[in-house]
Amino acid sequence: MVTGGGALNSLMFTKLEKALDPLIVKVHVPDAGTVKFKEAIVIALIGALRWREEENVLSSVTGATRDSVGGAIWLGR
Question: Are residues 54 and 69 in contact, defined by beta-carbon separation less than 8 angstroms?
């Protein structure tokens, strides 16, 4: 199941399907509401981790040399 912002990227989705086809893996994208809901939840989690000054950028995902705290907090003035 593909969700999050990438699920709405038709080029990425087509390439993913093609890459997984030899493995007999079928790719499914749920309805747009579910895709957008998951994306919103993940962004909220990343923001909460930033607020707590906890690592929210993982080297295992990004390929960076280390985990880090990404993002900025604007208090508005």
Answer: yes
